[in-house]
Design brief:
Number of helices: 8
Oligomer: single chain
Number of strands: 16
CATH topology: Jelly Rolls
Strand content: 25-35%
Mean pLDDT: 92
Low-confidence stretches: 1-13
Radius of gyration: 17 Å
Shape: globular
Order of helices and strands: EEHEHEEHHHHEEHHEEEEEEEEE
Helix content: 25-40%
Largest sheet: 10 strands, mixed
Distance between the termini: 18 Å
CATH architecture: Sandwich
Length: 255
């Protein structure tokens, strides 16, 4: 498991607010230039609200991770990998997708459509893996207090992906932002074979995405990032799908 760490806030001069766009069709070209793009409300607040209600209604079916620091509706590969539970992840993949569809109908198909738009290519579900799912970070929990782990999203990439530098993207949609904070900070630091960032990495330039309901941030999975601490009584609830290009213009997706 990656070490948990609490960050000293960076000087304002090296962190800038991200610029939002409403045109998802521009995402692919922006990503190729900057490695991160923020989309303003490609999903409607009404739809997000329905999925949030469904998520809370499915509380008994949540997967608890890291001692109840966070939860998910649908199984997330990285949490299972870091807790030596990958067998459970793959054994439950089909049922995981069924739970998501039952309680948040249309979510997986909406994220698939969004993935097609932002990649500009063809996207298929990764065989035997879980489809897009929902993360719940509780108010007053560990992530709320300390922020998330500073990390790269390389856990689901194969050695073949990594050795040839295959394109990989992380797509995060905000269903329910916390009352205060909880944005996503993305650093100008790329994965170079080591999952543990250096302290100097955290002093490089970064951008901050502060989400509203329905907003989406797409970023290069090899780029260093972190969920920021947050306050208030509202849980932070988001949808994630990971993408990797397996051939020119052909991508696979998973959670």
């Amino acid at each position: 498991m990656l070490p948990r760490r609490t960050l000293t806030p960076l000087p304002a001069a090296v962190c800038s607010p991200i610029e939002w766009t409403v045109d998802a069709s521009l995402a692919s070209s922006v990503l190729s230039l900057h490695g991160v793009v923020a989309l303003r409300r490609p999903l409607s607040p009404d739809v997000c609200e329905r999925w949030v209600k469904g998520t809370y209604g499915a509380r008994a079916s949540w997967t608890a991770d890291f001692g109840d620091d966070q939860f998910s509706l649908g199984r997330a590969f990285y949490t299972h990998l870091e807790q030596d539970r990958t067998a459970a992840y793959f054994r439950d993949a089909a049922t995981s997708d069924a739970r998501v569809e039952q309680h948040a109908p249309g979510l997986q198909s909406a994220m698939h459509a969004l993935a097609v738009t932002v990649t500009g290519g063809q996207v298929r579900a990764r065989r035997g893996w879980c489809g897009p799912g929902i993360h719940v970070f509780p108010a007053h929990g560990h992530v709320a207090t300390h922020g998330g782990v500073v990390h790269f999203d390389t856990e689901g990439l194969t050695e073949h992906h990594l050795s040839r530098g295959a394109r990989a993207l992380s797509v995060v949609c905000m269903l329910q932002p916390p009352s205060v904070g909880g944005g996503l900070r993305v650093w100008d630091v790329l994965y170079e074979g080591d999952d543990h960032p250096e302290d100097d990495d955290l002093e490089t330039e970064s951008v901050m995405a502060v989400y509203e309901v329905g907003d989406v941030v797409v970023f290069d999975s090899y780029r260093l990032h972190q969920i920021q601490p947050f306050g208030g009584e509202q849980d932070r609830i988001s949808v994630t799908v990971h993408l990797a290009e397996v051939d020119d213009g052909h991508w696979e997706s998973w959670f």
